[in-house]
Every structure is written in C-alpha cells, then in structure tokens.
Amino acid sequence: MKREVEEGHRHVYDVYTLCLVSWRDHFFMNVRLQIMEAVLQMIQRHRFGETVDTTLLKNIATSFTMLGLDENDTSRKTLEIYKKYFEEPFLQATKTFYSTESERFLASHSVVDYMKKAEQWLREEEARVEMYLDESTMKPVGPPERLS
Questions:
Q1: What is the tally of structural domains in the chain?
Q2: Which residues form the domain of 50?
Q3: Does residue 26 form part of some domain?
Q4: What is the average pLDDT score of the chain?
Q5: Among the listed residues 142, 140, 15, 4, the one whose alpha carbon sits nearest the alpha carbon of residue 82
C-alpha cells in the first residue's frame, strides 16, 4: 500500500480510511438529510428546555468532521463535509428559529427585555457549540466582532 501511494496512485487507503470513505460514499450521502432532520429536531427540543442526549449530538457532529478527508493527504481532515452538511443546515435552522422567537418575544415584551433575552439566547447557543458542535461553529454563532 505504501508503495502504491508513493507511486502516486490515488484512492489507495489504509483499512480505517477505506472504511470512512466507503461509509461516506455509499451510506452517509444517502442518509445525510434524514440524519440532519433528526439532529435539528433534537436541537430544537434542547432550545425549548427538553433533555436531549448531548453525547449523541456530539458524536454525530464528530462523525461529520471525520468524513472530511483531504483527497491529497488522507491523514489530514478537512471540515468540508461538516460545514456543508451539518453546519450550514444548523445555521439556517438557528436563523429561522430565532427570527420566529424574536418576533414572538417582541410582541409582548419591551426592547430592553428583548436585548436581555437576546444576550441569554446568545450564551445558550455558545454553550451548545461548546457542548456538541465543532469549535469552528463558534465564529458564525457567536457575537459579531466589535469595531474599535
């Protein structure tokens, strides 16, 4: 195998990497939408205060990162799969959720109360990232950088 790789043959993998590539290409790509639908439902329930299996969510997010293999160097991971198939739907669902919740909250509360609530929501989302998402998601979830 080492000689094959050294001679420039692509798509020659060690057993572990071959398992990941096979999983990604033959199973994951067919079920990713169902997986994300279930994940987003769990996160939605978590936002409403229900107890969810955060270890399961962390393991799922981690599995998305593990499937991002650099085709030129399979010993390196990329976040391509995670960002495209996990983070993008997560961020879109987050935007939709807080747009709806913000309108609902503002309909019966003052702007000052809303600002306090928005800070609380932001802290909750940051905690969510720390609990079960890849750390790279903190930047798009976190507060915008302040201008000096």
A1: 1
A2: 2-141
A3: yes
A4: 85
A5: 140
Query: Which residue type occupies 139?
Result: K
Distance CA 96, CA 98 (A): 6
| pTM exceeds 0.85 | no
Q: For residue 117, give every residue at least 6 positions away whose Cβ sits within 8 Å of its Cβ, in sequence order, or none.
A: 105, 109
For residue 11, name the pLDDT band (cuts at 50, 70, 90).
low
**34-47: pLDDT as tens digits:** 999 999 999 999 99
Helix segments in 7-146, DSSP class H? 15-23, 29-47, 54-66, 80-81, 88-106, 111-132, 138-141
Token output for 135: 């750390």
146 occurs within a structural domain: no
In DSSP terms, 77 is beta-bridged to: 69
